[in-house]
Design a protein that fits this description.
Helices cover about 30% and strands about 5% of the residues.
Length: about 400
Protein backbone atom coordinates (compact mmCIF):
# COMPACT_ATOMS: atom_id res chain seq x y z
CA UNK A 1 0.00 0.00 0.00
CA UNK A 2 1.56 3.30 -1.02
CA UNK A 3 1.38 6.52 0.97
CA UNK A 4 -1.49 7.91 -1.09
CA UNK A 5 -3.56 4.79 -0.55
CA UNK A 6 -2.82 4.79 3.16
CA UNK A 7 -3.82 8.42 3.50
CA UNK A 8 -7.07 7.95 1.59
CA UNK A 9 -7.87 4.79 3.50
CA UNK A 10 -7.22 6.45 6.83
CA UNK A 11 -9.52 9.27 5.80
CA UNK A 12 -12.30 6.81 5.11
CA UNK A 13 -11.76 4.97 8.38
CA UNK A 14 -11.80 8.23 10.26
CA UNK A 15 -15.27 8.97 9.03
CA UNK A 16 -16.34 5.70 10.59
CA UNK A 17 -14.45 6.42 13.78
CA UNK A 18 -17.05 9.07 14.54
CA UNK A 19 -19.56 6.37 15.28
CA UNK A 20 -18.82 6.35 18.98
CA UNK A 21 -17.93 9.49 20.88
CA UNK A 22 -18.50 11.44 24.06
CA UNK A 23 -21.18 14.12 23.74
CA UNK A 24 -21.19 14.45 19.96
CA UNK A 25 -23.27 17.05 18.12
CA UNK A 26 -26.45 15.73 16.58
CA UNK A 27 -25.20 16.10 13.04
CA UNK A 28 -22.15 13.97 13.73
CA UNK A 29 -24.25 11.35 15.50
CA UNK A 30 -26.46 11.06 12.44
CA UNK A 31 -23.44 10.78 10.18
CA UNK A 32 -21.94 8.13 12.43
CA UNK A 33 -25.16 6.15 12.46
CA UNK A 34 -25.01 5.95 8.69
CA UNK A 35 -21.40 4.85 8.87
CA UNK A 36 -22.18 2.06 11.29
CA UNK A 37 -24.65 0.55 8.87
CA UNK A 38 -22.05 -0.40 6.31
CA UNK A 39 -19.35 -2.03 8.35
CA UNK A 40 -18.08 -5.15 6.75
CA UNK A 41 -16.44 -8.28 8.08
CA UNK A 42 -13.12 -7.26 6.69
CA UNK A 43 -10.73 -6.12 9.20
CA UNK A 44 -13.31 -6.05 11.84
CA UNK A 45 -16.19 -8.32 12.63
CA UNK A 46 -17.49 -10.94 14.95
CA UNK A 47 -19.63 -14.01 15.25
CA UNK A 48 -21.57 -15.41 12.37
CA UNK A 49 -25.23 -14.83 11.68
CA UNK A 50 -25.73 -18.00 9.69
CA UNK A 51 -25.67 -21.63 10.71
CA UNK A 52 -24.08 -23.01 7.57
CA UNK A 53 -20.81 -21.22 8.11
CA UNK A 54 -20.42 -20.69 11.84
CA UNK A 55 -16.72 -20.93 12.56
CA UNK A 56 -13.85 -20.52 10.19
CA UNK A 57 -14.99 -18.45 7.30
CA UNK A 58 -12.81 -15.99 5.43
CA UNK A 59 -10.59 -13.17 6.54
CA UNK A 60 -11.34 -10.30 4.18
CA UNK A 61 -9.14 -7.92 6.08
CA UNK A 62 -5.89 -9.75 6.46
CA UNK A 63 -4.60 -9.79 2.91
CA UNK A 64 -5.28 -7.96 -0.33
CA UNK A 65 -3.94 -8.47 -3.79
CA UNK A 66 -1.78 -5.37 -3.48
CA UNK A 67 -0.23 -6.70 -0.28
CA UNK A 68 1.88 -9.06 -2.34
CA UNK A 69 3.94 -6.30 -3.91
CA UNK A 70 5.76 -3.35 -2.50
CA UNK A 71 5.74 0.13 -4.01
CA UNK A 72 8.99 -0.51 -5.82
CA UNK A 73 7.83 -3.79 -7.34
CA UNK A 74 9.50 -6.06 -4.82
CA UNK A 75 7.71 -8.60 -2.71
CA UNK A 76 6.72 -8.03 0.90
CA UNK A 77 5.10 -10.02 3.64
CA UNK A 78 1.31 -10.18 3.36
CA UNK A 79 0.87 -8.97 6.93
CA UNK A 80 2.74 -5.72 6.26
CA UNK A 81 0.86 -2.48 6.44
CA UNK A 82 -2.61 -2.14 7.79
CA UNK A 83 -2.99 -5.54 9.44
CA UNK A 84 0.47 -5.39 10.97
CA UNK A 85 -0.47 -2.06 12.56
CA UNK A 86 -3.52 -3.71 14.08
CA UNK A 87 -1.45 -6.48 15.58
CA UNK A 88 1.09 -4.02 17.01
CA UNK A 89 -1.64 -1.86 18.50
CA UNK A 90 -3.37 -4.90 19.99
CA UNK A 91 -0.13 -5.93 21.67
CA UNK A 92 0.31 -2.43 23.08
CA UNK A 93 -3.22 -2.42 24.49
CA UNK A 94 -2.70 -5.81 26.11
CA UNK A 95 0.68 -4.78 27.52
CA UNK A 96 -0.85 -1.73 29.20
CA UNK A 97 -3.67 -3.87 30.61
CA UNK A 98 -1.26 -6.49 31.92
CA UNK A 99 1.06 -3.92 33.46
CA UNK A 100 -1.94 -2.43 35.22
CA UNK A 101 -2.93 -5.81 36.61
CA UNK A 102 -6.09 -6.12 34.51
CA UNK A 103 -7.47 -9.43 33.23
CA UNK A 104 -7.73 -10.48 29.61
CA UNK A 105 -11.37 -9.42 29.67
CA UNK A 106 -10.23 -5.80 29.87
CA UNK A 107 -8.04 -6.27 26.83
CA UNK A 108 -10.96 -7.79 24.94
CA UNK A 109 -13.22 -4.83 25.77
CA UNK A 110 -10.54 -2.39 24.67
CA UNK A 111 -9.90 -4.25 21.41
CA UNK A 112 -13.62 -4.30 20.61
CA UNK A 113 -13.80 -0.57 21.30
CA UNK A 114 -10.76 0.32 19.21
CA UNK A 115 -11.94 -1.85 16.32
CA UNK A 116 -15.24 -0.01 16.23
CA UNK A 117 -13.76 3.44 16.76
CA UNK A 118 -10.74 3.36 14.47
CA UNK A 119 -10.46 -0.16 13.05
CA UNK A 120 -7.58 -0.52 15.50
CA UNK A 121 -5.51 1.94 13.46
CA UNK A 122 -3.90 4.91 15.24
CA UNK A 123 -5.59 7.70 13.30
CA UNK A 124 -4.22 11.22 13.63
CA UNK A 125 -7.58 12.73 12.78
CA UNK A 126 -11.29 12.19 13.12
CA UNK A 127 -14.52 14.15 13.53
CA UNK A 128 -13.91 17.31 15.50
CA UNK A 129 -10.76 16.87 17.56
CA UNK A 130 -11.09 13.08 17.87
CA UNK A 131 -7.85 11.16 17.37
CA UNK A 132 -6.16 7.88 18.12
CA UNK A 133 -7.18 4.28 18.61
CA UNK A 134 -10.21 5.14 20.72
CA UNK A 135 -10.97 8.43 18.97
CA UNK A 136 -10.60 10.27 22.25
CA UNK A 137 -11.24 14.01 22.30
CA UNK A 138 -8.79 16.43 23.91
CA UNK A 139 -11.61 18.85 24.66
CA UNK A 140 -13.15 16.32 27.03
CA UNK A 141 -10.05 15.78 29.07
CA UNK A 142 -8.54 12.69 27.50
CA UNK A 143 -5.22 14.47 27.02
CA UNK A 144 -3.51 16.49 24.34
CA UNK A 145 -3.53 15.30 20.75
CA UNK A 146 0.15 14.42 21.05
CA UNK A 147 -0.55 12.30 24.12
CA UNK A 148 -3.58 10.53 22.69
CA UNK A 149 -1.63 9.67 19.56
CA UNK A 150 0.60 7.47 21.70
CA UNK A 151 -1.19 4.10 21.77
CA UNK A 152 0.10 3.21 25.22
CA UNK A 153 -1.17 6.49 26.64
CA UNK A 154 -4.55 6.14 24.92
CA UNK A 155 -4.92 2.60 26.24
CA UNK A 156 -3.99 3.71 29.76
CA UNK A 157 -6.65 6.42 29.62
CA UNK A 158 -9.24 3.95 28.33
CA UNK A 159 -8.52 1.54 31.15
CA UNK A 160 -7.94 3.94 34.04
CA UNK A 161 -9.23 7.36 33.00
CA UNK A 162 -7.91 10.65 34.28
CA UNK A 163 -6.45 10.98 37.77
CA UNK A 164 -9.21 13.48 38.55
CA UNK A 165 -11.87 10.87 37.78
CA UNK A 166 -13.13 12.70 34.70
CA UNK A 167 -13.20 11.28 32.13
CA UNK A 168 -13.71 7.85 33.63
CA UNK A 169 -11.86 4.79 32.43
CA UNK A 170 -13.01 1.19 32.37
CA UNK A 171 -11.89 0.48 35.93
CA UNK A 172 -13.96 3.41 37.15
CA UNK A 173 -17.12 1.68 35.92
CA UNK A 174 -18.73 -0.23 38.78
CA UNK A 175 -19.24 -3.88 37.92
CA UNK A 176 -17.44 -3.75 34.57
CA UNK A 177 -15.97 -7.20 35.22
CA UNK A 178 -19.39 -8.86 35.00
CA UNK A 179 -21.44 -6.66 32.67
CA UNK A 180 -21.81 -7.40 28.98
CA UNK A 181 -18.67 -6.55 27.02
CA UNK A 182 -20.37 -3.96 24.84
CA UNK A 183 -22.02 -2.36 27.88
CA UNK A 184 -18.64 -1.96 29.55
CA UNK A 185 -17.24 -0.36 26.41
CA UNK A 186 -20.22 1.97 26.15
CA UNK A 187 -19.86 2.99 29.79
CA UNK A 188 -16.45 4.45 28.90
CA UNK A 189 -17.26 5.87 25.48
CA UNK A 190 -20.81 7.20 25.99
CA UNK A 191 -21.54 6.72 22.32
CA UNK A 192 -25.31 6.25 22.41
CA UNK A 193 -24.73 3.41 19.93
CA UNK A 194 -23.10 0.92 22.23
CA UNK A 195 -24.67 -2.07 20.51
CA UNK A 196 -22.16 -1.63 17.68
CA UNK A 197 -19.34 -2.73 19.98
CA UNK A 198 -20.87 -6.19 20.29
CA UNK A 199 -20.28 -6.78 16.59
CA UNK A 200 -16.52 -6.57 17.08
CA UNK A 201 -16.07 -9.38 19.60
CA UNK A 202 -15.14 -12.19 17.24
CA UNK A 203 -12.73 -10.00 15.29
CA UNK A 204 -11.13 -8.83 18.53
CA UNK A 205 -10.64 -12.44 19.59
CA UNK A 206 -9.14 -13.36 16.22
CA UNK A 207 -6.67 -10.49 16.31
CA UNK A 208 -5.78 -11.33 19.91
CA UNK A 209 -5.04 -14.89 18.86
CA UNK A 210 -2.81 -13.72 16.01
CA UNK A 211 -1.02 -11.36 18.37
CA UNK A 212 -0.41 -14.10 20.95
CA UNK A 213 -2.64 -12.43 23.51
CA UNK A 214 -4.23 -14.61 26.18
CA UNK A 215 -7.70 -13.21 26.80
CA UNK A 216 -8.38 -15.76 29.55
CA UNK A 217 -5.72 -14.68 32.03
CA UNK A 218 -6.87 -13.29 35.39
CA UNK A 219 -5.90 -9.87 36.69
CA UNK A 220 -4.27 -8.81 39.93
CA UNK A 221 -6.34 -7.78 42.90
CA UNK A 222 -4.35 -4.56 43.14
CA UNK A 223 -4.81 -3.58 39.51
CA UNK A 224 -3.78 -0.01 38.82
CA UNK A 225 -2.20 2.00 36.03
CA UNK A 226 1.51 1.74 35.51
CA UNK A 227 3.69 4.82 35.51
CA UNK A 228 5.51 3.44 32.49
CA UNK A 229 2.89 2.29 29.96
CA UNK A 230 5.48 2.11 27.21
CA UNK A 231 7.87 -0.06 29.16
CA UNK A 232 8.96 -3.64 28.59
CA UNK A 233 6.61 -6.08 26.96
CA UNK A 234 4.67 -8.48 29.15
CA UNK A 235 4.83 -11.90 27.52
CA UNK A 236 1.41 -13.54 27.47
CA UNK A 237 1.01 -17.16 28.45
CA UNK A 238 0.46 -19.86 25.87
CA UNK A 239 -3.09 -20.49 27.05
CA UNK A 240 -5.55 -20.16 24.17
CA UNK A 241 -7.81 -17.17 23.99
CA UNK A 242 -11.52 -17.67 24.50
CA UNK A 243 -13.58 -18.83 21.56
CA UNK A 244 -15.89 -16.32 19.94
CA UNK A 245 -19.55 -16.46 20.73
CA UNK A 246 -21.26 -17.59 17.55
CA UNK A 247 -24.68 -16.41 16.45
CA UNK A 248 -25.99 -19.30 14.40
CA UNK A 249 -29.44 -18.48 13.14
CA UNK A 250 -31.91 -19.42 10.44
CA UNK A 251 -30.83 -23.04 10.26
CA UNK A 252 -34.09 -23.95 8.57
CA UNK A 253 -33.39 -21.39 5.84
CA UNK A 254 -30.07 -22.93 4.95
CA UNK A 255 -31.11 -26.53 4.43
CA UNK A 256 -32.02 -26.13 0.77
CA UNK A 257 -30.03 -29.10 -0.39
CA UNK A 258 -26.27 -29.42 -0.82
CA UNK A 259 -24.41 -26.22 -1.48
CA UNK A 260 -22.63 -25.92 -4.83
CA UNK A 261 -18.90 -26.35 -4.60
CA UNK A 262 -17.14 -23.05 -3.73
CA UNK A 263 -15.70 -21.54 -6.87
CA UNK A 264 -18.56 -22.75 -9.06
CA UNK A 265 -19.21 -20.01 -11.61
CA UNK A 266 -22.09 -17.60 -11.30
CA UNK A 267 -24.39 -17.00 -14.27
CA UNK A 268 -27.02 -14.43 -15.07
CA UNK A 269 -30.49 -15.37 -13.96
CA UNK A 270 -33.80 -13.91 -15.04
CA UNK A 271 -36.13 -12.67 -12.32
CA UNK A 272 -38.27 -9.60 -11.83
CA UNK A 273 -38.10 -7.66 -8.58
CA UNK A 274 -41.13 -8.02 -6.30
CA UNK A 275 -43.55 -5.10 -6.32
CA UNK A 276 -42.39 -3.86 -2.90
CA UNK A 277 -38.83 -3.32 -4.18
CA UNK A 278 -38.72 0.38 -4.93
CA UNK A 279 -35.48 2.32 -5.12
CA UNK A 280 -34.33 5.80 -6.04
CA UNK A 281 -32.31 4.44 -8.95
CA UNK A 282 -33.21 1.86 -11.53
CA UNK A 283 -31.18 -1.32 -11.79
CA UNK A 284 -29.38 -0.03 -14.89
CA UNK A 285 -28.55 3.29 -13.24
CA UNK A 286 -27.38 1.55 -10.07
CA UNK A 287 -24.92 -0.55 -12.04
CA UNK A 288 -23.70 2.50 -13.98
CA UNK A 289 -23.14 4.33 -10.69
CA UNK A 290 -21.23 1.37 -9.23
CA UNK A 291 -19.02 1.08 -12.30
CA UNK A 292 -18.25 4.81 -12.21
CA UNK A 293 -17.28 4.46 -8.56
CA UNK A 294 -14.96 1.61 -9.47
CA UNK A 295 -13.40 3.69 -12.25
CA UNK A 296 -12.92 6.67 -9.94
CA UNK A 297 -10.25 4.92 -7.88
CA UNK A 298 -11.76 6.22 -4.66
CA UNK A 299 -10.56 4.45 -1.51
CA UNK A 300 -13.37 5.59 0.77
CA UNK A 301 -15.32 2.32 0.90
CA UNK A 302 -13.21 0.40 3.38
CA UNK A 303 -15.58 -2.08 5.09
CA UNK A 304 -18.61 -0.20 3.78
CA UNK A 305 -20.13 -2.93 1.61
CA UNK A 306 -23.71 -2.49 2.78
CA UNK A 307 -23.54 1.26 2.47
CA UNK A 308 -22.07 0.90 -1.01
CA UNK A 309 -24.86 -1.26 -2.39
CA UNK A 310 -27.46 1.03 -0.79
CA UNK A 311 -25.87 4.11 -2.31
CA UNK A 312 -25.71 2.36 -5.67
CA UNK A 313 -29.49 2.34 -5.57
CA UNK A 314 -29.69 5.96 -4.48
CA UNK A 315 -30.01 5.60 -0.71
CA UNK A 316 -27.78 7.20 1.91
CA UNK A 317 -27.81 4.09 4.09
CA UNK A 318 -29.28 0.61 3.98
CA UNK A 319 -31.21 0.77 7.23
CA UNK A 320 -29.45 -2.30 8.67
CA UNK A 321 -26.33 -2.53 10.79
CA UNK A 322 -24.80 -5.62 9.22
CA UNK A 323 -24.82 -7.04 5.72
CA UNK A 324 -25.62 -10.63 6.70
CA UNK A 325 -28.46 -9.45 8.95
CA UNK A 326 -29.89 -7.49 6.03
CA UNK A 327 -30.11 -10.73 4.08
CA UNK A 328 -31.75 -12.80 6.79
CA UNK A 329 -34.19 -10.01 7.66
CA UNK A 330 -35.65 -10.11 4.15
CA UNK A 331 -38.89 -11.99 3.49
CA UNK A 332 -38.14 -15.64 2.82
CA UNK A 333 -39.61 -15.28 -0.66
CA UNK A 334 -36.84 -12.82 -1.53
CA UNK A 335 -33.95 -14.96 -0.32
CA UNK A 336 -32.49 -17.30 -2.91
CA UNK A 337 -30.21 -19.39 -0.75
CA UNK A 338 -27.16 -20.80 -2.50
CA UNK A 339 -28.56 -19.97 -5.95
CA UNK A 340 -25.66 -19.09 -8.24
CA UNK A 341 -27.83 -17.59 -10.97
CA UNK A 342 -28.56 -14.08 -9.72
CA UNK A 343 -30.25 -11.57 -12.01
CA UNK A 344 -28.30 -8.44 -12.92
CA UNK A 345 -28.64 -5.89 -10.13
CA UNK A 346 -29.16 -8.43 -7.36
CA UNK A 347 -27.47 -8.19 -3.99
CA UNK A 348 -25.20 -11.16 -3.23
CA UNK A 349 -24.37 -12.13 0.33
CA UNK A 350 -21.56 -14.05 2.00
CA UNK A 351 -20.85 -14.94 5.60
CA UNK A 352 -17.26 -14.22 6.62
CA UNK A 353 -15.08 -14.42 9.67
CA UNK A 354 -16.56 -11.05 10.63
CA UNK A 355 -19.87 -10.39 12.31
CA UNK A 356 -21.05 -8.22 9.45
CA UNK A 357 -20.64 -10.64 6.55
CA UNK A 358 -20.32 -9.23 3.06
CA UNK A 359 -22.63 -8.01 0.32
CA UNK A 360 -21.83 -7.03 -3.27
CA UNK A 361 -23.75 -5.84 -6.31
CA UNK A 362 -24.09 -8.31 -9.16
CA UNK A 363 -23.30 -6.51 -12.44
CA UNK A 364 -23.70 -9.46 -14.80
CA UNK A 365 -21.49 -11.99 -16.60
CA UNK A 366 -20.48 -13.58 -13.32
CA UNK A 367 -19.03 -10.34 -11.94
CA UNK A 368 -19.74 -8.14 -8.94
CA UNK A 369 -18.92 -4.63 -7.80
CA UNK A 370 -17.26 -5.13 -4.42
CA UNK A 371 -15.24 -3.07 -1.99
CA UNK A 372 -11.93 -4.18 -0.46
CA UNK A 373 -11.33 -7.21 -2.67
CA UNK A 374 -8.34 -5.77 -4.56
CA UNK A 375 -7.46 -2.80 -2.41
CA UNK A 376 -8.81 -1.79 0.98
CA UNK A 377 -11.39 0.91 0.43
CA UNK A 378 -11.65 0.57 -3.34
CA UNK A 379 -14.57 -0.67 -5.43
CA UNK A 380 -13.52 -3.21 -8.05
CA UNK A 381 -15.35 -5.19 -10.70
CA UNK A 382 -14.27 -8.78 -10.12
CA UNK A 383 -15.55 -12.34 -10.59
CA UNK A 384 -18.09 -13.14 -7.89
CA UNK A 385 -16.09 -16.27 -7.11
CA UNK A 386 -13.26 -14.07 -5.77
CA UNK A 387 -15.08 -13.65 -2.46
CA UNK A 388 -14.78 -17.39 -1.94
CA UNK A 389 -11.37 -17.96 -3.46
CA UNK A 390 -9.59 -14.94 -1.98
CA UNK A 391 -11.40 -14.57 1.36
CA UNK A 392 -12.62 -18.09 1.98
CA UNK A 393 -16.10 -16.70 2.62
CA UNK A 394 -19.27 -18.79 2.39
CA UNK A 395 -21.86 -17.80 -0.20
CA UNK A 396 -25.32 -17.51 1.31
CA UNK A 397 -27.42 -16.44 -1.64
CA UNK A 398 -28.83 -13.49 -3.52
CA UNK A 399 -31.79 -11.19 -2.98
CA UNK A 400 -33.37 -8.27 -4.81
CA UNK A 401 -32.16 -4.76 -3.91
CA UNK A 402 -34.68 -4.39 -1.11
CA UNK A 403 -34.06 -1.61 1.43
CA UNK A 404 -37.31 -1.21 3.41
CA UNK A 405 -35.63 0.88 6.12
CA UNK A 406 -33.28 2.87 3.90
CA UNK A 407 -32.59 6.47 4.70
Amino acid sequence: MNSRQAAMLASGVARRGAALKLVVPAGILFFCFLIGLGIVGGIAGSSQASAASCGGAGLPDAQYENDDESDDGGSKDSTDGLHAQQIDNAKTIDRVAAQGGLPGRATLIALMTALQESTLINLDHGPGDSVGLFQQKPQYGWGTKEQIMKPAYAAKMFFFGADSGSPRGLTDVKGWESMALEEAAEAVQHSEQGELYAGQESEARRIAKEAGINLAHPGRADSQPTDNPSGSTVTPSDAPSGAPTERCENEEDQQDGPAPKPGTEFHDGNADWPAQVKNRRSTADAIKWARREADSGSLEWYRWCLKFVAQSYGWTSAGSQYAIDHYWAMPSTMRHNRDRNPPVGALMFWSTDGRAGHVALYVGNGEIASNDIREPGRISIVPATDIESKWGATYQGWAPPYFPNAG
